[in-house]
Amino acid sequence: MNRSVFRPRLPQPAIAFALLFGIAGLTLSACGPATVDAPPAEPVTDAGTATPDLMTDPYPGTNLDPTSDENARVPAAPAPIPVPPWDTVVRADDPLVGQVWSVADAAFVEPIDLVHRLAEADFVMLGEKHDNPDHHRIQAWLVEGIITLGRLPVVAFEQMTTDQEAALYDHLAANPLDAAGIADAIGWEESGWPAWEQYQPIAEAALAGNVAIVPANVPKDIIMGVSGMGAPPDEDTLATLGLDMPLPDEAQTALVQEIVDAHCGYLPEEMAPPMADAQRARDGGMASRLVESATELGLDGGILITGNGHARTDRGVPFQLLRLAPAATIVSLGILEVAADRATPADYAADFDDALPYDFLLFTPRLDDEDPCEKFAEQLQQMGGGDAEGAEGEADGEGHSDGTGEGDGDSDGDGNEDVGEDDAAEGETEGEGAGAAQPTAVSP
Known about the structure:
An eight-stranded mixed β-sheet has the order 2-1-8-7-3-6-4-5. The protein has helices at 111-119, 133-148, 165-174, 182-186, 196-208, 220-226, 235-240, 249-262, 272-297, 317-324, 372-375, 377-384, 388-396; strands spanning 100-102, 107-109, 123-126, 154-161, 213-217, 302-305, 330-337, 360-364. The protein has one domain (87-444): Rossmann fold (3-Layer(aba) Sandwich), CATH 3.40.50.11550. By secondary structure, it is α/β, with parallel strands linked by helices.
């Protein structure tokens, strides 16, 4: 049977669409769609949509009562694979586009199988290149699928800091299903992240599934202290951030070097180690928040929406989760843009210290094919000249020291050594508006 590929469409706010097609998945390949048996018809409204009541039955197709541990789960089938077109078009004809690669199995797997594998884990990392809209559409589809299979995870966002919790929860208490209003409630427009409309379908999937949305990232003042540009955190805070436990020497050296490489030769040497500390602090802080929120809310593990750098199993949030919850199962998905000089999934290991640091990879077209070192040359030159505000933006999480501006050079991008188009380097799409003129780490 031809292997199917992931062809996204914008998901609807409700998860009911997942029940319309039964277990059959739409198979798409270079040879065209395969024929599948039509499932039994579902009751539909005049508009032609399925009609489960998501308010009284937020997990349609299951017998799951979220108030009872007694009910056995009878999972519904996740949605069939969404259909074209991709929003991004650069290298959309690459044979890897839409394919899912299992690193452990060294084999391609069906996207529908990926949903099941993710749903079996306690904690799930859904990576992204922040400025690629297709990555967020995929994340929303996966969140819907995981919830539809009967899981009740918190959905945590790197893009929200824990000091935004009160504003977020006040908004949702008054408007429980208003995902669109989250942006105004927490001041998203001033954050420098890509437009909330890209992330909104993920929040809609969480709210429709009646699971909690959780800000996961570390507030700016703490990152500034970790980076040596503010009051140093106390010992308890350092422990919460995982900074009381050093990375293995090889991993630390690789992290610092990636930050240097991500800045295309413009970064003053002394700035790289503080940026590495900031990156590690975010990893540890988000891991702690995932575990704490799932425990506090009595929910079923967690999903983290985050840059690919934080999703790395060798030193990112999964590394820190193992410290906090050694018995937990953790599955990480890297969503990567295809690269011209990479013909097979194994070729992408060259961008990650020769070992793919994810459990699964999913490949998409590219947002653009610009050379990031040229694209962000002016900002990088400003950093090289010692601009204090720029350095602050980089180390403090506005320009983010994570590769997309966040710290690991490759951090959040597609894993390619094209250093940075990543999230427009987070200083562009992520740092802009959060401190303006911050130079950015340019990473894939």
